[in-house]
Amino acid sequence: MTDTVDSLFPAHLQHVMRLADRALERARCDGLVVYSGRPTEYFLDDHGPAFKANPHFLHWAPLQEAPDCFVRYSPGQRPQLVFHQPADYWHKPPTVPTAAWTREFDIAVIREPGEARALLGTDRQRLAFVGEAPADIGGWGFAAINPDPLLAYLHYHRAAKTPYELACLREASRLGAIGHIAAAAAFRAGASEYEVHQAYCTAIGLREQELPYGNIIAFGEGAAILHYTALGRSRDVPRPTFLIDAGGQYRGYASDITRTHVAAGADPTYLQLMASMEKLQLELCAAVKPGVDYRDIHLLAHRLIAGALVDAGVIKGCTADDAATNGVSHVFFPHGIGHLLGLQVHDVAGLAADDTGRTDIPRPAGHRYLRLTRKLEPGFVVTIEPGLYFIDLLLDEAQAKGLGRFINGELVQRLKPYGGIRIEDDVACTATATPENLTRDAFKRVA
Ligand code: GLY
Ligand code: MN
Ligand code: MN
Prior knowledge:
Blueprint: H1 2-27, E1 31-35, H2 55-60, E2 70-73, E3 80-84, E4 106-110, H3 116-119, E5 127-130, H4 135-138, E6 144-145, H5 148-157, H6 163-188, H7 193-204, E7 216-219, E8 241-246, E9 249-250, E10 253-254, E11 257-262, H8 268-286, H9 294-312, H10 320-325, H11 328-332, E12 381-384, E13 387-389, H12 392-400, H13 409-415, E14 420-422, E15 425-428, E16 436-437, H14 438-446
Parallel strand pairs: 1-5, 3-4, 5-6
Antiparallel strand pairs: 1-2, 2-3, 7-8, 8-11, 9-10, 12-15, 13-14, 15-16
Protein backbone atom coordinates (compact mmCIF):
# COMPACT_ATOMS: atom_id res chain seq x y z
CA MET A 1 0.00 0.00 0.00
CA THR A 2 2.68 2.48 1.07
CA ASP A 3 4.59 1.71 -2.14
CA THR A 4 1.61 2.57 -4.31
CA VAL A 5 0.85 5.75 -2.41
CA ASP A 6 4.49 6.80 -2.44
CA SER A 7 4.79 6.22 -6.17
CA LEU A 8 1.84 8.58 -6.72
CA PHE A 9 3.18 11.34 -4.48
CA PRO A 10 5.56 13.10 -6.93
CA ALA A 11 2.76 13.70 -9.46
CA HIS A 12 0.50 14.88 -6.64
CA LEU A 13 3.12 17.36 -5.49
CA GLN A 14 3.53 18.64 -9.05
CA HIS A 15 -0.22 19.25 -9.11
CA VAL A 16 -0.09 21.07 -5.76
CA MET A 17 2.77 23.21 -7.09
CA ARG A 18 0.80 24.12 -10.24
CA LEU A 19 -2.16 25.11 -8.05
CA ALA A 20 0.17 27.24 -5.95
CA ASP A 21 1.61 28.89 -9.09
CA ARG A 22 -1.80 30.08 -10.20
CA ALA A 23 -2.97 30.96 -6.68
CA LEU A 24 0.14 33.11 -6.18
CA GLU A 25 -0.58 34.96 -9.43
CA ARG A 26 -4.06 35.73 -8.11
CA ALA A 27 -2.63 37.01 -4.83
CA ARG A 28 0.23 38.86 -6.60
CA CYS A 29 2.83 37.18 -4.42
CA ASP A 30 6.15 35.63 -5.41
CA GLY A 31 6.10 32.64 -3.11
CA LEU A 32 4.29 30.69 -0.47
CA VAL A 33 4.95 29.66 3.11
CA VAL A 34 2.62 26.99 4.47
CA TYR A 35 2.77 26.54 8.22
CA SER A 36 1.82 23.30 9.97
CA GLY A 37 0.48 25.01 13.10
CA ARG A 38 1.16 25.03 16.82
CA PRO A 39 -0.60 23.21 19.68
CA THR A 40 -2.87 25.34 21.86
CA GLU A 41 -3.53 25.16 25.60
CA TYR A 42 -6.79 25.03 27.51
CA PHE A 43 -7.78 28.16 29.44
CA LEU A 44 -5.61 28.59 32.53
CA ASP A 45 -3.91 25.26 31.92
CA ASP A 46 -0.56 24.00 30.69
CA HIS A 47 -1.80 21.41 28.23
CA GLY A 48 -4.37 21.38 25.48
CA PRO A 49 -6.26 19.49 22.77
CA ALA A 50 -4.42 17.12 20.47
CA PHE A 51 -2.50 18.89 17.73
CA LYS A 52 -4.19 18.96 14.35
CA ALA A 53 -2.11 20.10 11.40
CA ASN A 54 -3.21 22.77 8.95
CA PRO A 55 -4.85 20.89 6.05
CA HIS A 56 -3.00 23.11 3.56
CA PHE A 57 0.24 21.83 5.04
CA LEU A 58 -0.95 18.21 4.75
CA HIS A 59 -1.79 18.84 1.10
CA TRP A 60 1.96 19.39 0.61
CA ALA A 61 3.46 16.98 3.10
CA PRO A 62 1.96 14.03 5.02
CA LEU A 63 3.25 15.17 8.42
CA GLN A 64 0.43 15.10 10.91
CA GLU A 65 2.36 15.32 14.16
CA ALA A 66 4.91 18.02 13.39
CA PRO A 67 4.12 21.48 14.83
CA ASP A 68 6.03 24.60 13.79
CA CYS A 69 7.09 23.21 10.42
CA PHE A 70 7.00 25.17 7.15
CA VAL A 71 6.81 24.41 3.47
CA ARG A 72 8.43 27.19 1.45
CA TYR A 73 7.74 27.30 -2.28
CA SER A 74 8.42 29.71 -5.11
CA PRO A 75 7.29 28.95 -8.68
CA GLY A 76 9.98 27.18 -10.66
CA GLN A 77 11.88 26.04 -7.56
CA ARG A 78 12.00 22.84 -5.56
CA PRO A 79 9.88 23.09 -2.43
CA GLN A 80 11.70 23.35 0.87
CA LEU A 81 10.59 21.72 4.11
CA VAL A 82 11.71 23.49 7.26
CA PHE A 83 11.31 20.78 9.87
CA HIS A 84 11.08 21.69 13.52
CA GLN A 85 12.71 19.18 15.83
CA PRO A 86 12.98 20.83 19.23
CA ALA A 87 15.63 19.85 21.76
CA ASP A 88 13.12 18.61 24.33
CA TYR A 89 13.41 16.04 27.09
CA TRP A 90 9.76 16.39 28.22
CA HIS A 91 8.25 15.17 24.97
CA LYS A 92 9.41 12.94 22.19
CA PRO A 93 10.58 15.28 19.42
CA PRO A 94 9.18 14.47 15.97
CA THR A 95 11.49 12.27 13.92
CA VAL A 96 12.98 13.89 10.83
CA PRO A 97 11.06 12.16 8.01
CA THR A 98 12.96 9.97 5.59
CA ALA A 99 10.10 8.31 3.67
CA ALA A 100 10.10 8.31 -0.12
CA TRP A 101 8.05 11.52 -0.39
CA THR A 102 10.82 13.53 1.30
CA ARG A 103 12.96 13.16 -1.86
CA GLU A 104 10.79 15.83 -3.45
CA PHE A 105 11.87 18.44 -0.88
CA ASP A 106 15.00 20.18 0.28
CA ILE A 107 14.89 19.70 4.03
CA ALA A 108 16.32 21.93 6.74
CA VAL A 109 16.00 20.99 10.42
CA ILE A 110 15.52 23.69 13.06
CA ARG A 111 15.52 23.47 16.86
CA GLU A 112 13.53 26.68 17.50
CA PRO A 113 10.66 28.05 15.36
CA GLY A 114 12.50 31.38 15.23
CA GLU A 115 15.29 29.78 13.19
CA ALA A 116 12.84 29.47 10.30
CA ARG A 117 12.78 33.24 9.84
CA ALA A 118 16.15 33.43 8.15
CA LEU A 119 15.66 30.16 6.26
CA LEU A 120 12.44 31.40 4.67
CA GLY A 121 14.47 34.12 2.98
CA THR A 122 14.82 37.86 3.11
CA ASP A 123 12.07 38.36 0.53
CA ARG A 124 9.35 37.60 3.05
CA GLN A 125 7.50 40.79 2.13
CA ARG A 126 6.82 39.08 -1.24
CA LEU A 127 5.55 35.81 0.29
CA ALA A 128 2.04 34.73 1.16
CA PHE A 129 1.70 32.87 4.47
CA VAL A 130 -0.95 30.16 4.83
CA GLY A 131 -1.85 28.91 8.27
CA GLU A 132 -2.76 30.05 11.74
CA ALA A 133 0.10 32.42 12.53
CA PRO A 134 1.09 32.78 16.18
CA ALA A 135 2.06 36.34 17.15
CA ASP A 136 5.81 35.66 16.90
CA ILE A 137 5.60 34.30 13.34
CA GLY A 138 2.85 36.68 12.18
CA GLY A 139 5.25 39.55 12.80
CA TRP A 140 7.90 38.33 10.35
CA GLY A 141 6.71 40.69 7.64
CA PHE A 142 4.93 38.47 5.14
CA ALA A 143 3.18 40.15 2.21
CA ALA A 144 -0.13 38.69 3.30
CA ILE A 145 -1.43 36.15 5.75
CA ASN A 146 -4.08 33.86 4.28
CA PRO A 147 -4.97 36.21 1.41
CA ASP A 148 -8.53 35.59 0.22
CA PRO A 149 -7.79 35.21 -3.53
CA LEU A 150 -5.11 32.62 -2.82
CA LEU A 151 -7.24 30.59 -0.40
CA ALA A 152 -10.31 30.79 -2.65
CA TYR A 153 -8.29 29.35 -5.54
CA LEU A 154 -6.71 26.55 -3.51
CA HIS A 155 -9.94 25.62 -1.75
CA TYR A 156 -11.98 25.46 -4.94
CA HIS A 157 -9.49 23.18 -6.66
CA ARG A 158 -9.00 20.90 -3.68
CA ALA A 159 -12.38 19.31 -4.49
CA ALA A 160 -10.90 17.28 -7.37
CA LYS A 161 -8.52 14.73 -5.91
CA THR A 162 -5.26 13.51 -7.43
CA PRO A 163 -4.58 9.77 -7.86
CA TYR A 164 -2.41 10.03 -4.71
CA GLU A 165 -5.28 11.50 -2.75
CA LEU A 166 -7.68 8.86 -4.05
CA ALA A 167 -5.23 6.17 -2.92
CA CYS A 168 -5.11 7.75 0.55
CA LEU A 169 -8.90 7.94 0.67
CA ARG A 170 -9.14 4.27 -0.34
CA GLU A 171 -6.85 3.37 2.53
CA ALA A 172 -8.87 5.52 4.95
CA SER A 173 -11.94 3.65 3.71
CA ARG A 174 -10.27 0.29 4.25
CA LEU A 175 -9.49 1.21 7.85
CA GLY A 176 -13.04 2.45 8.34
CA ALA A 177 -14.47 -0.81 7.02
CA ILE A 178 -12.26 -2.85 9.37
CA GLY A 179 -13.42 -0.72 12.29
CA HIS A 180 -17.07 -1.02 11.34
CA ILE A 181 -16.85 -4.81 11.15
CA ALA A 182 -15.19 -4.99 14.58
CA ALA A 183 -17.75 -2.57 16.03
CA ALA A 184 -20.70 -4.59 14.72
CA ALA A 185 -19.23 -7.74 16.26
CA ALA A 186 -18.78 -5.96 19.59
CA PHE A 187 -22.38 -4.74 19.48
CA ARG A 188 -23.64 -8.27 18.80
CA ALA A 189 -21.52 -9.57 21.70
CA GLY A 190 -23.27 -7.18 24.10
CA ALA A 191 -20.69 -4.38 24.43
CA SER A 192 -21.70 -0.89 25.61
CA GLU A 193 -21.48 2.09 23.24
CA TYR A 194 -18.16 2.99 24.85
CA GLU A 195 -16.85 -0.56 24.47
CA VAL A 196 -17.94 -0.62 20.83
CA HIS A 197 -15.92 2.57 20.34
CA GLN A 198 -12.89 0.94 21.98
CA ALA A 199 -13.27 -2.12 19.74
CA TYR A 200 -13.37 0.20 16.72
CA CYS A 201 -10.18 2.06 17.66
CA THR A 202 -8.34 -1.15 18.55
CA ALA A 203 -9.27 -2.79 15.25
CA ILE A 204 -7.90 0.05 13.15
CA GLY A 205 -4.99 0.97 15.40
CA LEU A 206 -5.86 4.67 15.68
CA ARG A 207 -6.09 6.73 18.86
CA GLU A 208 -9.20 8.89 19.28
CA GLN A 209 -7.25 11.99 18.32
CA GLU A 210 -6.24 10.32 15.06
CA LEU A 211 -9.84 9.65 14.02
CA PRO A 212 -11.21 12.07 11.45
CA TYR A 213 -14.10 13.00 13.80
CA GLY A 214 -15.58 11.82 17.09
CA ASN A 215 -17.22 8.44 16.62
CA ILE A 216 -21.01 8.48 16.61
CA ILE A 217 -22.07 5.22 18.21
CA ALA A 218 -25.69 5.11 19.27
CA PHE A 219 -28.06 2.39 20.43
CA GLY A 220 -31.82 2.70 19.99
CA GLU A 221 -33.25 6.20 20.48
CA GLY A 222 -29.75 7.70 20.49
CA ALA A 223 -29.66 7.02 16.75
CA ALA A 224 -32.13 9.91 16.37
CA ILE A 225 -29.48 12.36 17.59
CA LEU A 226 -27.55 13.24 14.46
CA HIS A 227 -24.20 13.79 16.16
CA TYR A 228 -24.58 11.60 19.26
CA THR A 229 -21.14 11.21 20.82
CA ALA A 230 -22.07 10.46 24.45
CA LEU A 231 -20.68 6.88 24.33
CA GLY A 232 -22.82 5.35 27.09
CA ARG A 233 -20.93 3.11 29.50
CA SER A 234 -23.79 0.75 30.37
CA ARG A 235 -24.40 -2.51 28.55
CA ASP A 236 -27.80 -2.82 30.13
CA VAL A 237 -29.72 -0.40 27.92
CA PRO A 238 -32.30 -0.91 25.19
CA ARG A 239 -30.41 -1.89 22.05
CA PRO A 240 -32.86 -2.67 19.26
CA THR A 241 -30.63 -0.81 16.80
CA PHE A 242 -27.04 0.33 16.52
CA LEU A 243 -26.06 3.31 14.37
CA ILE A 244 -22.35 3.87 13.84
CA ASP A 245 -20.95 6.86 11.96
CA ALA A 246 -17.18 6.47 12.13
CA GLY A 247 -14.28 6.91 9.76
CA GLY A 248 -10.66 6.04 9.29
CA GLN A 249 -7.79 8.32 8.43
CA TYR A 250 -4.65 7.89 6.36
CA ARG A 251 -2.01 10.59 5.80
CA GLY A 252 -4.61 13.11 6.92
CA TYR A 253 -7.30 11.92 4.49
CA ALA A 254 -10.61 10.86 5.99
CA SER A 255 -13.32 8.36 5.43
CA ASP A 256 -16.82 9.01 6.74
CA ILE A 257 -18.97 5.91 6.96
CA THR A 258 -22.34 5.19 8.55
CA ARG A 259 -24.10 1.89 8.98
CA THR A 260 -27.26 1.04 10.90
CA HIS A 261 -27.64 -2.42 12.39
CA VAL A 262 -30.75 -3.96 13.82
CA ALA A 263 -31.13 -6.60 16.52
CA ALA A 264 -33.25 -9.69 16.04
CA GLY A 265 -37.01 -9.40 16.38
CA ALA A 266 -37.40 -5.86 15.05
CA ASP A 267 -40.72 -4.36 13.99
CA PRO A 268 -41.47 -5.40 10.38
CA THR A 269 -42.13 -1.78 9.39
CA TYR A 270 -38.71 -0.78 10.65
CA LEU A 271 -37.19 -3.66 8.67
CA GLN A 272 -39.09 -2.51 5.60
CA LEU A 273 -37.66 1.00 6.05
CA MET A 274 -34.14 -0.46 6.42
CA ALA A 275 -34.54 -2.32 3.13
CA SER A 276 -35.90 0.77 1.37
CA MET A 277 -33.06 2.93 2.67
CA GLU A 278 -30.46 0.44 1.47
CA LYS A 279 -32.02 0.41 -2.00
CA LEU A 280 -32.42 4.17 -2.31
CA GLN A 281 -28.93 4.84 -0.95
CA LEU A 282 -27.46 2.77 -3.78
CA GLU A 283 -29.62 4.62 -6.29
CA LEU A 284 -28.29 7.94 -4.95
CA CYS A 285 -24.68 6.70 -5.09
CA ALA A 286 -25.21 5.76 -8.74
CA ALA A 287 -26.17 9.39 -9.45
CA VAL A 288 -22.60 10.56 -8.73
CA LYS A 289 -21.50 11.42 -12.27
CA PRO A 290 -19.64 14.28 -13.92
CA GLY A 291 -21.86 17.26 -14.65
CA VAL A 292 -24.53 16.25 -12.13
CA ASP A 293 -25.66 19.06 -9.86
CA TYR A 294 -25.25 17.76 -6.31
CA ARG A 295 -28.34 19.74 -5.30
CA ASP A 296 -30.34 17.45 -7.58
CA ILE A 297 -29.05 14.39 -5.72
CA HIS A 298 -30.13 16.02 -2.47
CA LEU A 299 -33.62 16.77 -3.82
CA LEU A 300 -33.87 13.25 -5.26
CA ALA A 301 -33.01 11.93 -1.78
CA HIS A 302 -35.94 13.85 -0.34
CA ARG A 303 -38.32 12.31 -2.87
CA LEU A 304 -36.97 8.78 -2.38
CA ILE A 305 -36.99 8.95 1.43
CA ALA A 306 -40.49 10.41 1.35
CA GLY A 307 -41.45 7.50 -0.93
CA ALA A 308 -40.06 4.98 1.54
CA LEU A 309 -42.02 6.62 4.36
CA VAL A 310 -45.23 6.72 2.32
CA ASP A 311 -44.82 3.03 1.41
CA ALA A 312 -44.27 2.15 5.08
CA GLY A 313 -47.33 4.17 6.12
CA VAL A 314 -45.39 6.67 8.22
CA ILE A 315 -46.36 9.53 5.91
CA LYS A 316 -50.03 9.54 4.99
CA GLY A 317 -52.49 11.71 3.11
CA CYS A 318 -50.05 12.99 0.50
CA THR A 319 -47.78 11.70 -2.22
CA ALA A 320 -44.02 11.33 -1.89
CA ASP A 321 -43.51 14.28 -4.24
CA ASP A 322 -45.84 16.42 -2.10
CA ALA A 323 -44.02 15.35 1.07
CA ALA A 324 -40.71 16.36 -0.51
CA THR A 325 -41.98 19.89 -1.10
CA ASN A 326 -44.47 20.60 1.71
CA GLY A 327 -41.90 20.18 4.49
CA VAL A 328 -42.90 16.71 5.68
CA SER A 329 -39.79 14.95 4.36
CA HIS A 330 -37.67 17.43 6.38
CA VAL A 331 -39.25 16.20 9.58
CA PHE A 332 -37.60 12.82 9.02
CA PHE A 333 -34.57 13.80 6.90
CA PRO A 334 -33.34 17.07 8.40
CA HIS A 335 -29.74 17.14 7.09
CA GLY A 336 -28.02 17.37 3.72
CA ILE A 337 -27.39 14.33 1.53
CA GLY A 338 -23.66 14.80 2.05
CA HIS A 339 -20.55 16.84 1.43
CA LEU A 340 -17.10 16.91 -0.11
CA LEU A 341 -14.55 14.66 1.60
CA GLY A 342 -10.78 14.89 1.73
CA LEU A 343 -8.28 16.31 4.18
CA GLN A 344 -11.28 17.60 6.10
CA VAL A 345 -14.32 15.47 6.73
CA HIS A 346 -16.52 18.33 5.61
CA ASP A 347 -14.03 19.42 3.00
CA VAL A 348 -13.75 23.07 2.02
CA ALA A 349 -15.44 24.93 -0.81
CA GLY A 350 -18.67 22.93 -1.06
CA LEU A 351 -20.56 26.15 -1.74
CA ALA A 352 -17.95 27.80 -3.98
CA ALA A 353 -19.30 29.08 -7.30
CA ASP A 354 -15.83 29.51 -8.78
CA ASP A 355 -12.18 29.81 -7.79
CA THR A 356 -12.34 33.53 -7.01
CA GLY A 357 -14.30 33.20 -3.77
CA ARG A 358 -17.84 33.56 -5.06
CA THR A 359 -20.26 31.48 -3.03
CA ASP A 360 -23.48 32.33 -4.77
CA ILE A 361 -24.76 28.92 -5.83
CA PRO A 362 -27.80 28.94 -3.58
CA ARG A 363 -28.99 25.97 -1.64
CA PRO A 364 -32.48 24.89 -2.71
CA ALA A 365 -34.99 27.05 -0.78
CA GLY A 366 -35.57 25.63 2.69
CA HIS A 367 -32.58 23.25 2.58
CA ARG A 368 -30.23 25.19 4.82
CA TYR A 369 -28.02 22.31 5.93
CA LEU A 370 -26.86 21.20 2.48
CA ARG A 371 -23.06 21.55 2.45
CA LEU A 372 -22.41 21.06 -1.27
CA THR A 373 -24.10 22.88 -4.13
CA ARG A 374 -21.55 22.37 -6.92
CA LYS A 375 -21.70 20.32 -10.09
CA LEU A 376 -19.68 17.13 -9.76
CA GLU A 377 -16.42 16.68 -11.64
CA PRO A 378 -14.10 13.69 -12.04
CA GLY A 379 -12.02 13.36 -8.89
CA PHE A 380 -14.58 14.85 -6.55
CA VAL A 381 -15.16 12.61 -3.55
CA VAL A 382 -18.49 13.08 -1.83
CA THR A 383 -20.50 11.33 0.81
CA ILE A 384 -23.96 10.00 0.10
CA GLU A 385 -25.73 9.72 3.43
CA PRO A 386 -29.50 9.54 3.35
CA GLY A 387 -31.10 9.27 6.76
CA LEU A 388 -34.46 9.09 8.42
CA TYR A 389 -35.06 9.66 12.11
CA PHE A 390 -37.83 9.95 14.68
CA ILE A 391 -36.89 13.22 16.40
CA ASP A 392 -39.33 14.61 19.01
CA LEU A 393 -38.26 18.20 18.44
CA LEU A 394 -39.04 18.04 14.73
CA LEU A 395 -42.21 15.98 15.18
CA ASP A 396 -43.49 18.59 17.67
CA GLU A 397 -42.56 21.38 15.27
CA ALA A 398 -44.44 19.60 12.48
CA GLN A 399 -47.56 19.48 14.67
CA ALA A 400 -47.23 23.18 15.41
CA LYS A 401 -46.93 23.93 11.68
CA GLY A 402 -50.09 21.95 10.90
CA LEU A 403 -48.23 19.08 9.21
CA GLY A 404 -49.40 16.54 11.78
CA ARG A 405 -52.16 15.28 9.50
CA PHE A 406 -49.51 13.87 7.14
CA ILE A 407 -47.80 11.85 9.86
CA ASN A 408 -49.00 8.55 11.32
CA GLY A 409 -48.36 9.40 14.96
CA GLU A 410 -49.17 5.92 16.27
CA LEU A 411 -46.72 4.27 13.93
CA VAL A 412 -44.05 6.87 14.74
CA GLN A 413 -44.46 6.08 18.45
CA ARG A 414 -43.96 2.39 17.63
CA LEU A 415 -40.78 3.12 15.65
CA LYS A 416 -39.26 5.68 18.01
CA PRO A 417 -37.29 3.14 20.08
CA TYR A 418 -35.26 2.35 16.94
CA GLY A 419 -34.09 5.97 16.67
CA GLY A 420 -33.48 6.14 12.96
CA ILE A 421 -31.51 4.90 10.00
CA ARG A 422 -28.52 6.41 8.20
CA ILE A 423 -26.38 4.77 5.53
CA GLU A 424 -23.32 6.70 4.40
CA ASP A 425 -20.81 5.84 1.69
CA ASP A 426 -17.88 7.78 0.29
CA VAL A 427 -18.15 7.97 -3.48
CA ALA A 428 -15.63 9.19 -6.03
CA CYS A 429 -16.89 10.78 -9.22
CA THR A 430 -15.00 9.29 -12.18
CA ALA A 431 -14.73 10.47 -15.79
CA THR A 432 -17.44 7.97 -16.71
CA ALA A 433 -21.02 7.36 -15.63
CA THR A 434 -19.80 4.69 -13.19
CA PRO A 435 -18.68 6.13 -9.86
CA GLU A 436 -16.22 4.43 -7.53
CA ASN A 437 -17.83 3.56 -4.22
CA LEU A 438 -14.84 3.67 -1.88
CA THR A 439 -16.85 2.39 1.07
CA ARG A 440 -18.57 -0.59 -0.52
CA ASP A 441 -15.34 -1.58 -2.28
CA ALA A 442 -13.52 -1.42 1.06
CA PHE A 443 -16.11 -3.61 2.82
CA LYS A 444 -15.78 -6.16 -0.01
CA ARG A 445 -11.98 -6.11 0.21
CA VAL A 446 -11.80 -6.63 3.98
CA ALA A 447 -14.68 -9.11 4.23
N1 GLY B 1 -19.78 12.19 10.37
C1 GLY B 1 -20.33 13.47 10.08
C2 GLY B 1 -21.03 13.46 8.81
O1 GLY B 1 -21.48 12.44 8.37
O2 GLY B 1 -21.11 14.43 8.12
MN1 MN C 1 -20.70 10.55 8.85
MN1 MN D 1 -20.74 12.73 6.29
